[in-house]
Amino acid sequence: MYAKATVLGNLGRDPETRYTQGGRMNVSFSIASTRRYNDAGGTQQEKTTWFRVTAWGKLAETMDKLAQDGYLAKGRSVLVSGRIDSSEYTGQDGQQRFSLDITADDIVLAGGRTDGGGQNSGARSGQPAPVAEDIDDLPF
After folding, report:
1. Which of 48, 52, 60, 97 could form a disulfide with 34 if both were Cys (CB 3.0 to 4.6 A apart)?
2. Residue 119 in contact with residue 128, Cβ under 8 Å?
């Protein structure tokens, strides 16, 4: 059994396509999910959580094509579902850091493209899917 997560966030960088030594493709990118709330004093607060996302196989091929076509790029909103793991590492500054990593099962583009064009995608099947233009349009 494993922990599964669904995260809505914005890409923090353009996707990177890589291949394992065995030739297996993977596409990775980071997303930031921000929560806004009012604290006890009524002051608006904001907390951002970063996730590292990796797609493999057919999903990676679809993500690579969307990135090449300009549909998946830094700043784009995505809804990611998959297996979540945490890891610990030492940063360049010598400090211990933690990372939340998602191995994606499904990635859906959310929100409109900033350049105003293009087709929307539900990436699990590689078939076009509806895209929410506004967070309030998401079906949950």
Report:
1. 48
2. yes
The CA distance from 105 to 131, in Å, is 18
Closest CA to 88 of 76, 98, 79, 73: 98
CA 108/CA 111 separation, integer angstroms: 10
What's the structural domain count of the chain? 1
Identify the burial level of 138 via C-beta atoms within 10 angstroms of its C-beta, where 0-12 means exposed, 13-18 middle and 19 or more buried. middle
Split at pLDDT 50, 70, 90, the class of 89 is confident
pTM: 0.74
Please give the Cα distance from 60 to 44 (Å, whole number).
Answer: 38
> For residue 133, what is the domain's CATH number?
2.40.50.140
C-alpha to C-alpha distance for 48 and 30, rounded to whole angstroms: 12
User: What is the average pLDDT across 10-26?
Assistant: 96
Range of the domain at 10: 4-137
Confidence of residue 79 (pLDDT cuts 50, 70, 90): very high
**CA–CA distance, 81 with 124 (Å, rounded to integer):** 10
